[in-house]
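Researcher: Please translate sequence to structure tokens.
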Amino acid sequence: MTHTEANRPTAHSHQIRVYYEDTDLAGIVYYANYLKFIERARSEWVRARGVDQARLKAETGIVFAVRRVEADYLRPAVFDDLLTVTTELEALGGARIVLEQAVWRGDIRLFEAKVTLVCLGPEGAVRLPDAVRAALS
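Model: Translation complete:
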């Protein structure tokens, strides 16, 4: 997905400012912080689709957990950069959600990841509830 394709029905954009605390001794964003950035964007993607994760957990015990992340660090972000994190649904399985995410500075892709989430209940993996599946697809 390109930065400008974030207007597709299953795509979402979330802006993040790089603060000093996000950087390392070299003055670039510390690699683990990209995972925080894409986590925030995933939460906003779910929220934008009308899924209240706190209520879902309270009422059903269901949560989403990261099962796998494939990440590529392409270029560094630095202090005070305004970044855009794009999130797009790639696949929706019985208990699995696969998302493509990218971090952009303007039209320059800095980071990309393919994230697999699983739907977990109190006893382990469970199928996505129909209402959640409809909201996310």
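Researcher: Any highlights?
Model: The longest strand covers residues 108-121.
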